[in-house]
Amino acid sequence: MNAASPLFPERITYSITDRDERLMEEGESQISVQEESLTLLHDRGDAFKIELRDVAEISAKNHKISIHLHTGEMLGLSRLGYRFDDALREIIRQRNEVILKDLLIGETLQVEGIHADVTFFQEGNKQGIPVSCEVRLYETALVVLPHTADVTRIPYSFIHSVDEENYKLKITVGNGNALIFSKVGRQMDYLKSSLAGAMNKMLLNTQDTLRELMPFLPSLEIREASRLMKEGRAARKDQLSDLSPGLWEGLEKNIAEFGMKEYYDFLKGLCSNTDHVYAGLKKGLMGNLTGIYLWFMLPILHNNPDLPGNALALEASTSDGSGRATYFFRVFPRRAYREKPGAEYLEEKSAEIAQLINRALITINFRREPVYISADQLKETRFKQYQYSIHRIPELRELRDRFIGRVMHHSLEQWQQDVLDLLRFNVENLDDGPRWEKGFELAGKDQSGT
């Protein structure tokens, strides 16, 4: 549909009110919905366009569609007649598609068109209000598209349990939150079997990846390890060693084949507790990267705050040798770290932040470009989508807030010096805002997301 083609050829009534609900404009128009915008087409040639990314909420009452903007204004559409439901459905659908792009999903859609009511529960809060929605299943996540609220993406690796009771399906996730699907009707069995199939496939894929890396491990040990490491989840060395002494050794042996050994060994030498090193793996879905994605997260914390540290180092590579950079995230606020936290608290906090960073990376499907690009680069047109991604994804904002910098793998000697410079920079600054800038000169050039 081009910009001049109305969604509805009939003229409708519209109104625009400001944040104080004062009428700013009203009249008659035709409406057109393109991929990322809604356009009012006036007979007098005074058309204007509203970006669907600027829409905070869509509601409908008494045959009037209310489109609330993030800036506080509201566009009202009425006198839609028998086309009211079609218009509401199309505007919501197009806005949801825009939000899906901003959520950085970018993966294969497996199941769509399951309609239900969904009720969200947050830990410690009362039950929410049921809203109509569409349920979709992607390769690694369940996606809920409410008709009047923001899209929610739930990675399968976050799901703790799926239970059916009284014709309702309850899904509990790892952070204590839950959602309940009701009014699913005859699609209930299809939803349950499709969700179980997607989760089983994810777990089996993790087992296949582990078997590919460590074919000597017994099947039951691989199964237990896959539960800890499913779809990018981090597992700590002591956890994996308890499952099987050969499991961690096997992962470390793969480091050399992935071209990471010298880099990993250097970081390990800086590491404050090698039992608290985390490992994770993932296959595919890494932007343009392919093969197995293997990563390690190492805490670099010291009782002496003058030593380079206060960081979690993320060292990652793929089986095809691409994606070479080391990423660093701040653990403590810089001023708090100067106050010399106790050793026990250092370890406790690093474990908490490691899990937070891991969860955030899974949420953004391990894409790294939106993490490291600078605030100035975000103003460029080519990064426009990331502006909205950052707005919509709190986990991405957390990553950007904790991000110290990245060190590119040009030469081992230069990389080692840059790592030490970055870590010194991190403890010498007292303001949490500044980043170590050397790793930004190539930002935006490697579209693989490394």
Summarize this, please?
By secondary structure, the chain is an alpha+beta fold. Helix content is 33%, strand content 30%. The chain folds into 3 domains: 8-100, PH-domain like; 103-201, Pleckstrin-homology domain (PH domain)/Phosphotyrosine-binding domain (PTB) (PH-domain like), CATH 2.30.29; 215-440, no CATH class.
Which strand-content bin applies to the residues?
A: 25-35%
Number of domains: 3
The best one-word shape is: globular
Low-confidence stretches: 440-450
Total helices: the number is 12
Spatial order of the strands in the main sheet?
4-3-2-1-7-6-5
- What is the rounded distance between the termini? 36 Å
Main sheet record: 7 strands, antiparallel
Notes on the structure:
With 450 residues, the chain is an alpha+beta fold. The chain has three domains: 8-100, Roll (PH-domain like), CATH 2.30.29.30; 103-201, Roll (PH-domain like); 215-440, no CATH class. It contains twelve helices and 20 strands. The chain has helices at residues 84-102, 188-213, 219-229, 237-243, 245-257, 261-270, 334-337, 343-363, 369-372, 384-392, 394-402, 412-428, and strands at 8-17, 23-33, 37-41, 48-51, 55-61, 64-69, 74-78, 109-121, 131-138, 141-146, 152-155, 159-165, 168-173, 178-182, 235-236, 278-283, 292-300, 311-318, 325-330, 403-408. The strands form three sheets. The protein has a seven-stranded antiparallel sheet, covered by helices on one side. Strands 11-10-9-8-14-13-12 form a seven-stranded antiparallel sheet. A six-stranded antiparallel sheet has the order 15-16-17-18-19-20, with helices on both faces. The longest helix is centred in the middle third of the chain and has 26 residues, at 188-213. It starts with 7 loop residues before the first strand and ends in a 22-residue tail after the last helix.
